[in-house]
Amino acid sequence: MAANENELEFEFLPYIRVYKNGNIVRLKGEDTIPAGTDPHTGVSSKDVTNIIPETEVYVRIYVPKISTNNQKFPLLVYYHGGAFLVQTPSSPTYHNYLNALVAKSQVIAVSVHYRRAPEHHLPAAYEDSWAALHWVASHCNGDGPEAMLNHHADFRRVFLGGDSAGGNIVHNLAMAAGNPDGGLNVGILGIALVDPFFWGSDPIEAEELDSGKKAYVDRLWGAVCPSCPLDDPWINPLAEGGPSLVGLGCWRVLVTVAEKDLLKDRGWLYFQVLSRSGWLGAVEIDETEGEEHCFHLDNLESEKAKERMRKMADFFNRDLPPMAFQ
Known about the structure:
By secondary structure, the protein is an alpha/beta fold.
């Protein structure tokens, strides 16, 4: 008997419903805003859809106002959040955020869309994100397919950034970039992990106080990567037997966490372990009091969201460390 179209296979509110007939309904992040010039910030954007042939992978490039033909900007490759299930660079949440971040930070941003679960379980998102980073790096000698990146991106100042699932992706890309055999032909100056989605089998701190939420995230990871245990290094970078953080392939790390976020303690633990790992870079952490996970995306005009953005802008625009890329 054919499955009734209303029979649920599973759901993860507020993200997604999957029905037994194979229909998938995403409950957020599916509205879109076209690329163009933002009237509030003057930031211009365009989509590039031929990143990986025969996939839905694309990037949206954001460029601040350019005053001279030879002007160079730091380059931020950004990976959106959404639990590996929802959101795109074209969704209002991320389009509006990247316009504001680019205007404030005076960076060129390449916002990456990757294939999402449950149609495409991990490692699809990692593979797409890595391929997109290689595509960006193909412009480092000024002969890539996008003129704006060739002429105005400063490849001495390449950053990766992402929130939640995107922060998880950024960590894993930085680990891959630190592998001498990874084949990435540009250096990564820094990474920004915004309320990153890290987890593990053994509960810590706040997770011990809310077993219901712990069970929910456990199930969520199982839907995103059915073949991956909760202590796979992809989701738990501090797991015993996993690769050492000494191999992180960048010089600066910014971790942000929010006081009321269940993931906060994982972010703090990552900061603490990286600090004493022997890694040669500089790591910092910033906690926002009284706020939930990725609060800044819901109200860009709030003072706390503006303060978080100021910290990001400062992180992207500091002087080059003397040991980088020598």
